[in-house]
Design a protein that fits this description.
alpha/beta, Rossmann fold, Alpha-Beta Plaits, TIM Barrel, 4 domains, elongated
Length: 719
C-alpha cells in the first residue's frame, strides 16, 4: 500500500497567483478556472508588467505565457533566475510549442500547462501541487540555508561536500573567506549596511564558486566556506572579487582575508579540512599586504605537534611533568633593592620532547580549554611552595599566578581559590593574581564583576601585559586593579636604541596619581633599572636580578639574597655612621682650618702644607709664601708650581733633596723634622734661595702632611 504524502499546505491560507498572458481571453479563462479555489488573482499582459508586480507583491505562483510583447516569458524567467528573491517563486509555463519546454526548464520553470488548456481539474491540481512543492522546498531550505544570504548553513554544507567528493573524482580545495575587522564595519556603518555587505559578498562567492563547480556556505558572522575543484591563482581571483565588492558597495577600505587548503586530504573529516583553511587565514593577522594564505607543510607540522601536545596533556599532568618556576620581583624604591614577591611560571619537561616553551603550549591550551586544568595545577603548586618558604624562613614571599581569560568564565573559580588557600593555610594577600590586559577588554563587564568578587575575598589583582595595545590609558582609572604590570616587550621597545621612554613615564605618573604601584617586566640592565627608578617605578622583574628558577634554586636565591641584604645593610650602617662622623669631623675641621689660617697668616715668613705621599699636593699656602714667589693669588701660585712641592723646588736642586723627600714619604714616625736649603724660581723669573724647615704631622680626615716654614735667605749668603 503506498505511503501517503504529507504536506504543510494549508488551504485556509490565501495565496497570490499571477497570471501573465498578452491575450485577454486567456487571462480571463484561467481566472475563471481558479476562481473559488482560495487564490488572490493578479494579472499582467506582458513580462515587464509581471516583473513590476513580482518586485512589489508576495507571489506564490506565476502562470506564464512564453510569447509576449515588451518582455517575453523566457526573458522574464531569465530576470527571475538572476534575482535571489524572485528565484524561489515557482513558474508554470503556458505554451503550445513543445520545443520551448526544455529551454524554459533550464531557465527555472517548475511545470507546464499546454495550450489549448486541458480540463479544469488538471489545471487546478497542477497549480496546487506546484505551490505545495514550492512551499515544502522553501521550508526545507529554511533549515539548511542561512536566512540572510540564502547560502547553505554549515551543517548542510558539510553534507553536500561529502556528496561532491563522491560525485567528482578530482582534487578539491577548501577555502575560508572573511572580512577584515568586520566588527568595526558593523559598528561604524550600522547593522543594515553590514548585512547588505554580507549579502553582496555571498552573491559574488556563489557566482564565482558555482562557475567553478563548487558550493559555498556562510559559516557564521562574516565567515564563508567554499569547496570546489582544485584551482590555481587564488590571489588574483580574490583580488578581482574584492574589486567587484568595492564596485557594488562603494567602500574602498574593505579587505578580505582568505585561507586556502589546496588539494585536500579526503581521508580527513570535512570540518578538519576547513580547520586547516582557518589556520592558513589566521597567519594573515597583522598583515596588510597579503590577502590569501595557504596551508603548507610547515603549518601541517605545527598542527601535528599541537595534536601531540594535546594528547600528551593528561599524562603530563598526572606524571607531574609540569614544573613551576619562580622569577623574583624587587622593590627598588630604597637604596638597597629588596625581594618583594615572585611570579610563578610553568615549564613542561616532556620525557621525549624535552623542555617545551610555554609560548608554544599555553596559547594552544587556551584555545582548546585545557588551560583551566593547567592553571589549577600551578595555583596549588605555588600555594604549597609559599607555605614551605613561610615555615622555613619565618616570613612570606608572596607569589603571583596567572589567571587566563578562560578561567574568568569558570563559575567555580571563587570556590577553587578558596580551596587552594584553605589547603595551604594561606591568606588571600599571599597569593596574588595576574590577569592580562586583553582579558579586561573582552566581555569586560563579566570580567570586571569576577575581579571585584576576587578582590572582596582579599586577593590583590595585577593587570598583566599592560602596553600590548588592547586598552587606553584612561582604562586604568576605571578598572579594578591593585598593581599595573608593564609588558616585557613594551619595556624592551622603549629602551631600544633610538626610542624614548616618555610613554612609560606618563603611565607611571598616572598610576602614581591613582595610587597603583607599577611593575616593570623584562628589565635586563642596570641602566634600565636606574632609569625606571628615576621615573618612580616601584618594582622590577627581569634577568637583571634573576631568570625564572625552579623552587629549589629559588630557595637558594632567597638565602643568598638575605645574606647579601644583611651585608648591604651593615655596609649602609657603617656608611651612615661614617657620614655622621664625617659631618662632625667636617665641622671640627672647618673650625680648625679657620684657627690655623689665622695663625698661619701671622707667622713671620712663608708657610705651606703638602701631603706626605707620592702626589706631594699642596693643600695650603699663606700670603707671605705667595709674596716670596711673587704671586698675588693662590691661583697664580698653583699655576706657577703645578700645585705640588716638586714644583716649588728649582729643577736643578730637586735631585739634591730627593733623598730627603723619599725619607719623608717612607717615614711612619710623626713629629719628624727636617731642614733643607734649595733654590726657587719666582713668577718674574728671578731665582732665590730659601731655607725649608719641615714638620711631619697628621690631620683628621686628611692624613699625614708636612707643615713647612720657609724663609728667603738669598741676601744672607750673597757677598
Amino acid at each position: 500500500m503506498p505511503t501517503a504524502y504529507h504536506t504543510n499546505y494549508n488551504p485556509a491560507v490565501r495565496r497570490s497567483v499571477l497570471v501573465v498572458d498578452d491575450e485577454l481571453i486567456n487571462r480571463e479563462m484561467l481566472g475563471m478556472l481558479l476562481d473559488g479555489e482560495g487564490y488572490d488573482l493578479l494579472y499582467a499582459e506582458n513580462g515587464q508588467e509581471a516583473l513590476d508586480i513580482l518586485l512589489t507583491e508576495h507571489i506564490s505562483l506565476v502562470l506564464l505565457d512564453v510569447l509576449m510583447p515588451v518582455l517575453s516569458g523566457t526573458e522574464l524567467l531569465l530576470r527571475m533566475r538572476g534575482d535571489p528573491a524572485l528565484r524561489r517563486v515557482p513558474v508554470i509555463v503556458l505554451t503550445s510549442d513543445s520545443a520551448l519546454e526544455v529551454e524554459c526548464l533550464r531557465l527555472g520553470a517548475s511545470d507546464f500547462i499546454p495550450k489549448p488548456y486541458p480540463p479544469a481539474d488538471i489545471i487546478r491540481a497542477r497549480v496546487r501541487r506546484t505551490i505545495e512543492l514550492s512551499e515544502d522546498r522553501e521550508l526545507i531550505g529554511s533549515t539548511e540555508r542561512d536566512p540572510l544570504t540564502g547560502l547553505f548553513n554549515r551543517e548542510f554544507f558539510y553534507r553536500y561536500c561529502e556528496q561532491l567528493d563522491r560525485a567528482l573524482n578530482c582534487p578539491m580545495d577548501a577555502v575560508l573567506v572573511d572580512i577584515h575587522r568586520f566588527h568595526i564595519i558593523n559598528e561604524r556603518s550600522g547593522k543594515a549596511w553590514a548585512d547588505r555587505l554580507l549579502i553582496s559578498l555571498a552573491e559574488l562567492l556563489r557566482t564565482h564558486v558555482h562557475k567553478e563547480g563548487g558550493i559555498v556556505c556562510r559559516r557564521e558572522a562574516d565567515t564563508f566556506l567554499a569547496y570546489l575543484p582544485h584551482r590555481e591563482d587564488y590571489s588574483g581571483r580574490f583580488e578581482r572579487l574584492r574589486e567587484n565588492l568595492t564596485a557594488i558597495t562603494g567602500d574602498t577600505h574593505i579587505r578580505l582575508r582568505v585561507g586556502v587548503y589546496m588539494n585536500v586530504d579526503k581521508t580527513l573529516l570535512i570540518e578538519r579540512r576547513f580547520d586547516r583553511a582557518q589556520s592558513a587565514a589566521d597567519q594573515l593577522r597583522g598583515s596588510f599586504n597579503k590577502t590569501v594564505g595557504f596551508y603548507d607543510d610547515e603549518m601541517h607540522r605545527k598542527e601535528l605537534f599541537a595534536e601531540q601536545l594535546i594528547e600528551a596533556f593528561p599524562t603530563a599532568l598526572r606524571e607531574r611533568q609540569f614544573t613551576v618556576f619562580y622569577q623574583p620581583k624587587f622593590d627598588i624604591r630604597g637604596s638597597i633593592p629588596r625581594l618583594a614577591s615572585a611570579e610563578a611560571q610553568v615549564r613542561w619537561n616532556h620525557p621525549t620532547l624535552g623542555m617545551i616553551s610555554p609560548a608554544v603550549f599555553i596559547p594552544l591550551f587556551e584555545e582548546n580549554g585545557l588551560i583551566l586544568e593547567l592553571d589549577c595545577y600551578v595555583w596549588r603548586e605555588a600555594a604549597v611552595q609559599i607555605r614551605r618558604w613561610k615555615d622555613k624562613f619565618g616570613f612570606t614571599v608572596p607569589v603571583s599566578v596567572n589567571v587566563s581569560r578562560v578561567d574568568m568564565y569558570d563559575p567555580l573559580l571563587l570556590d577553587t581559590f578558596r580551596s587552594v588557600l584553605k589547603e595551604a593555610g594561606l591568606g588571600a594577600k599571599e597569593l596574588m593574581l595576574e590577569i592580562t590586559e586583553s582579558a579586561y577588554t573582552q566581555d569586560s563587564n563579566q570580567i570586571v564583576d569576577t575581579v571585584n568578587l576576587l578582590r572582596e575575598l582579599g586577593f590583590r589583582i595585577e593587570m598583566d601585559d599592560f602596553g600590548t595595545g588592547y586598552s587606553s590609558l584612561n582604562m586604568i582609572s576605571s578598572l579594578p586593579i591593585d598593581v599595573l604590570k608593564l609588558d616585557m616587550q613594551f619595556i624592551r621597545d622603549a629602551f631600544r636604541e633610538g626610542r624614548d621612554t616618555r610613554l612609560i613615564e606618563i603611565i607611571i605618573e598616572i598610576a602614581e596619581y591613582l595610587g597603583v604601584p607599577v611593575v616593570a617586566e623584562g628589565v635586563e640592565t642596570r641602566e634600565q633599572l636606574l632609569a625606571l627608578k628615576s621615573m618612580g617605578c616601584h618594582l622590577i622583574q627581569g634577568y637583571y636580578f634573576s631568570k625564572p628558577l625552579p623552587a629549589a634554586e629559588f630557595e637558594s636565591f632567597i638565602v643568598k639574597h638575605l645574606e647579601t641584604l644583611h651585608e648591604a645593610e651593615e655596609a649602609e650602617r657603617k656608611r651612615e655612621n661614617g657620614r655622621r662622623n664625617l659631618q662632625s669631623g667636617r665641622v671640627m675641621q672647618e673650625q680648625l682650618s679657620a684657627t690655623m689660617e689665622w695663625l698661619a697668616e701671622r707667622i713671620p715668613g712663608g708657610f705651606f702644607i703638602y701631603r706626605n705621599d707620592a702626589s706631594q699636593r699642596i693643600l695650603y699656602a699663606n700670603r707671605e709664601m705667595l709674596r716670596i714667589f711673587g704671586c698675588e693669588t693662590m691661583e697664580e701660585f698653583t699655576f706657577l708650581t703645578g700645585g705640588t712641592f716638586a714644583g716649588v723646588v728649582h729643577p736643578d736642586d730637586y735631585a739634591t733633596i730627593q733623598s730627603s723627600i723619599i725619607k719623608q714619604i717612607d717615614n711612619e714616625v710623626l713629629e719628624m723634622k727636617d731642614y733643607v736649603e734649595y733654590r726657587i724660581v719666582r713668577k718674574d723669573g728671578a731665582v732665590r734661595r730659601v731655607s725649608d724647615y719641615g714638620h711631619l704631622t697628621e690631620l683628621t680626615g686628611v692624613g699625614k702632611v708636612f707643615c713647612v716654614f720657609i724663609s728667603d735667605i738669598t741676601d744672607r749668603i750673597e757677598p
